[in-house]
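Entry, Tuesday afternoon. Goal for today is a structural model of the target with zinc ion bound, before we commit to ordering more compound. Inputs were pasted exactly as handed over by J.K., no edits. I checked the ligand SMILES twice against the vendor sheet because last time a stereocentre got dropped in transcription.
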Amino acid sequence: MIQGSCHCGEVRFQLDWRIDELTTCDCSLCAMRGALMAKVPETALEVTTGEDLLTLYQWNTHRAQHYFCGRCGIYVFHRKRAAPDHFGINVRCLHDVGLAGLPVRATEGASMTVEAPDPCDRWPGPRVSPSGA
Ligand SMILES: [Zn+2]
């Protein structure tokens, strides 16, 4: 059983999982938070304390659920967009886990579809300059 926590220790969780691969992601959120992650099935993750402090952040398609500690602000894990029955875990939050030597796979989150904040339900046609130029 792998133990993990946020920085302040209010949020604690454990993983019943053996990590054999790490991932990075080039989407704008993962790039900004510098995330190094491991993918685990939802049944392998148990939040043991501080669940009430978990704060949800969603953006873009609002399918992925990104959780961070509402006290110290550390990203702990997220329910994945492409595999909603799996979580991506911030492996920097894990205690006493040897990450050296594990392969790191770079995933291409930036190339996943992006939804406009105010999408149009039909194509409005080519833009026409009012001056006709
Ligand atoms: Zn915290």
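The two ends are 68 Å apart (CA to CA).
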